[in-house]
Structures are given as C-alpha cells and as structure tokens.
Amino acid sequence: MVHDPHRTGGAPPGQARTSDIRSSPESDGEGERVAKALARAGVASRRDVERLIEAGRVALNGQVLTTPAVKVEPGDILTVDGAVVGDAEPVRMFRFHKPVGLLTSHKDPQGRPTVFDALPKGLPRLISVGRLDINSEGLLLLTNDGGLARALELPATALVRRYRVRAKGRVTQAKLDTLQAGITVEGVHYGAIEAHLDKAKEGPQGANLWITVTLTEGKNREVRRVMEALGLQVNRLIRLSYGPFALGTLETGEIEEVGPRVIREQMGEHIAPQNLPRGDRPMLQKTSTTATARRSASRKPGRPGQGPKRRDAAGEAPAKKVYKAGWAKPKPKVPRKPGPPKARGAPKPR
What we know:
By secondary structure, this protein is α+β, with helices and mostly antiparallel strands. It has helices spanning 34-40, 46-54, 115-118, 146-153, 173-177, 222-229, 260-267, 290-298, and strands spanning 32-33, 58-60, 63-64, 71-72, 78-80, 83-84, 93-98, 127-129, 137-143, 161-168, 183-185, 188-190, 194-203, 206-215, 233-242, 245-246, 254-257, 287-288. A hairpin with a 2-residue loop joins strand 13 and strand 14. The longest helix is centred in the N-terminal third of the chain and has 9 residues, at 46-54.
C-alpha cells in the first residue's frame, strides 16, 4: 500500500483490470490478504473488514472489491470509502495490568466496560494475546499484529503462563501434583499443569489457599475449571507472566510498551522481517489509565509523609532481606545531633 493516490498506471474508478485483483489461492506474489492488510493498518478487525467489503466500501487500485480472497502487494493503492489507506506500522506490543471488572473484548452487547475502553488515547488499534475473564486480573499482552497474537496463543508455541490463585477449600500438594499428568473436566482435556501450594490458612468457612499455577495451553477458563474439579473455589486469579513477559512492578491499570529491541530478540521468529520494529526505545512509557487515576484520587490520604506500602501482585508485603552468613550488614544511618557551636580560639600573636 502507498500513500500516493495518483500513481501512474492505476485503473480509473469503476474500471476493472484483471491484473489489479489477485485471488489469494492462485496468487504467486508475496502480498497479504486484504483483510489482514487493513487490520494491520488499524482500519478495523478482519471480520469488520469483510463486512466493509460486502458493503462495497473497499477498493484496490480503483476497483471495488467483492471478496476478501484478494492479496495486496507492495505498490498497490487500497482505499476505504475513497480514502487512501496508509502503510501498516511495525509491530508494537504492550504490557497491561488488567484490573477486575474489565472485559477483554472490543465490543460488549451488554455495555460492560472493556479493556480497550480503558486504554489511553493515541494508541494504535490493539488486540489481546489471549484473554483474561472479567473477574481475573494481572498481565495482559496487547499488540497491533494479529499474526503475532495468534502465534503466541497457539499451544504448539508452548509459552509458559504463570498465575497466582487464591482459593477456598482444602487440597494437598500430592493432589495438586496429579495435575502434571493432565486432567479431563466435563469432556475437555487439559494438558500438564504444575501447581504449588504456597500458603494455607484455616478460617471459619474453610481454608484460604494461595497456589501458584504454571501451564502452557491456556484454554478458556482453564485455571478456574481445573481448580473447581479439585473442589476449590477460586476467588482471585492473577496472571503473573506470559512467556518471557512478566507483570513486574506494573500497578493496577498501568500500561507500558515493550521496547523494539526486546520484540526483535524475543518475538522475532513469529514476525515477518518487513514488520519488525526498529530502534531500541519504545514510543510509550509507563502510563496509568483513567480508571486507575480515579481510584487513586478516591483513596483516603494517609499520615503526612507516609507513602503507600509496597506490595507484590498478590497483595502481600515483600519478605525482609536475609543476609548470608559472613556478610556484613549495612550500618543504619543515624542523624547527627546538632551540638553547641565551637568556640573560636584566641588570636595568634603576631
């Protein structure tokens, strides 16, 4: 795709040329399907692009398209409603700390708030890598490249997903270890899952458990359904990492762009060479969403000079640092007390 609508050799509007339209199955070129090209350019999702084509609103080199089975090659002019569509930007990826209460969807028939409604303005059209249900929180990867998103979601890619689960009920480590052989729940088979019982505290209505779960498939509501099959009721689910990307220090509602160098090194095998980003620094630094800002403003102020306590992703205070035997502990800094001013000595005789 190019920006110049006056390229020589282009067919006048309404006049079809067989060389302008390349059907995908028979094409020998290296172009990409028109729906994918428009989706990468940020026009709409592939499904919405197909609807635009059905409505006769998409044209290639001046000819209105009637099918999405067409390839766009370098130098072609693609228009939507008569406006030239620019070239797609290189791949970008973002880490987002999804809060509870947001749906991982672009549209919701029930009108519930979505992840994409909460994102700051000025970002390209993004899609999620996998999903987190409305009651789950933690790391959600977002990208402008649908092919990369699908590659990272495939079980064959075997990217490790790690979760922290809070549940109510009783279970032993031996029972959790049986998940390493896989489990079938209501006719759905789930592959090997590693689960470690981190903490158990008895309460009036049963034991409160913290469990770390590691898996590679990531099927729909996999963690919740597997835990329920063990007799546990999940009341909090936090995704800590997805492949090489971790939640880290992102606060709830914060989004941060992954650097181009990291994308090339970690995701290069899943991205076409012409779509790889250049440079080293991301365009967007760590940013809080509007919803997070409202929550922060509504918090009760603490004592003067008292900052918020540092917590991990599960809401627990970090453990105290342990020094190895033989190490010298740092001396605490003691403020020096002000003393009386020193008396000046007598003047020296000349």
